[in-house]
Amino acid sequence: MVKRITSKELASRILNQKKTFILDIRNAEEFDDWKIEGKTVDIINEPYFNLLDGVDPLEGKIEKDQEVLVVCAKGGSSEMISEMLEEAGYTKVYN
After folding, report:
1. pLDDT per residue as tens digits for the range 14-32
2. Whole-prediction pTM
3. Residue 67: CB atoms within 10 Å
4. Which of 22, 55, 60, 82 is the least buried, fewest Cβ under 10 Å from its Cβ?
5. Local structure of residue 18 (DSSP, 8 states)
């Protein structure tokens, strides 16, 4: 089962400058329009549609034991991609 983090918990992490890695799976146009930012935030954008056939495009971008927070516009797509990451052996995935 995928672990969840609330938007309030995420905001607290960022304000407290806790190192945070985010995988934003929204379309590139939406990502370019706005993204989650902070001094200790690392973020990459890999659109959801690029991951429908598997999470292979993320190899080399995310370590299997790295904490990663997957975000999308409404939460459904990020839940699916989070589950796919866990199935692929990623151990610290949050939706």
Report:
1. 999 999 999 999 999 999 9
2. 0.94
3. 16
4. 60
5. -
- Residue 85 has a CB neighbour count (10 Å cut-off) of 23
pLDDT at 51: 97
95 exposure class (CB count in 10 Å sphere: 0-12, 13-18, 19+): buried
pLDDT attached to residue 2: 86
Hey, which residues are catalytic here? 72
Q: Rounded CA gap, 94 and 13, in Å?
A: 13
- Predicted pLDDT of residue 75: 86
